[in-house]
Homoserine O-succinyltransferase
Amino acid sequence: MPIRVPDKLPAIDALKQENIYVMPAHRADTQDIRPMQVAVLNLMPDKITTEVQLVRLLSNSPLQIDIELVRLEHQTKTTSEAHLDNFYRYFSDIKDKNYDGLIITGAPLGLKDYEDITYWPQLKEVLDWADRHVTSTLFLCWAAHAAIYYHYGIKHDIRDTKLSGVYKHTKWESKAPIMRGFDDIFYVPHSRYGEVPINKLNKEADLITISGSNEVGAYLMQNKSGTRVFITGHPEYDRLTLHDEYTRDVDADLNPDIPVNYYPDNDPKLAPQKLWQAHGYLLFSNWLNYYVYQTTPYNLSQVSENIRTDNFAE
């Protein structure tokens, strides 16, 4: 089954060119099936690019998935108001609903204190709401650090240099369902200054550190029940996302380091290879299957009664 998105969402045409089938809402309405309801709180400035990246990874599933795009009232608007009005709903409009899954994206805020962010009070409201209204929430990059800080009081450190590139990762907790089918070594892009020390994560009884490396630290974590999954990298990135970030910083005279393990021969004039897409598809499929579909109630009104307490890592 394909995923269902609003009619005329730009991601539809973009993904059709990649031979990825996305079902417009009017077609999905003809199918007699209970689709998974997944909300995406998109905190990225370029919302359209992020929509394409996430819809691509969610599309690799036999499930029919309804995507609802969500925004915050106090978030800075860098995407056109027309696009936001056509395809997004404010969090205040959907907070009485329940969802099978929720994805909260990263944001370019890694050098700011959480309390200095304009929409931090509302994001805290979202994090509390998700524990009562969502079967499992997937946090990406900055959102992962923000949620770990809010829920567990563990604040990220700021690296001396930006972590930028494509890095090897290994499985640290291979029994976790989200790791099923993973190779011993896999690649993930990272682009961040923040890093949560592993020794602090390991002291939190509810957190399981599932994957990472010596270079990037902790990459994939979850709480014991699987209702919160934290990803510090960017498995959703396009082939040229790191390139675009690098050239942007070069043009701004920031003298950035060349992204690690990204360009052939470390030459920014050569087209990079995409080494992480298979991992991204598997990661999102495992999350949807084991943490959402196989756990969520058929009647979404019962989500708050169905919060898990089992330990997925055992």
